[in-house]
Fold this protein.
Amino acid sequence: MENHGIKVIHLTGAEEQSEYDRLTFAEDLVRQLPENHEGRNSWILNYSNREDANKMRADRGIKWDAYHQAAETSKQHRNENSTEMKTKFVKETDRKVTYIIEGSFDGTFFNIKRFICQVQKQETEKETQELADFILSKLNS
């Protein structure tokens, strides 16, 4: 099977035998968060293939990409129960590292599409944030 340039995860012997892989384990951890938690719902919407996630995507007009095992959020989708999903770039700072992330927002959920870049640290934190803001202004224009 070709990997088409995609990083392939190799299952451990225990994962193959139990049919309980890292993705399922991660999803079970995510599902322990409260049902109104945005991160939980965004993750389930984008990566879960369980019945409730399929319903969540169907309600929002988002299709499942079987090849990539993820929601198709790159296009703008619309149905009678939701607003148009708009592509948006945001910056996120975690432990003094700033990232630029692309996603789509339907008014309720921010669905992460992909990681764009890590902003290189400047001499000061203020300069790093100014650089991130500059990148965002170019991406969002």
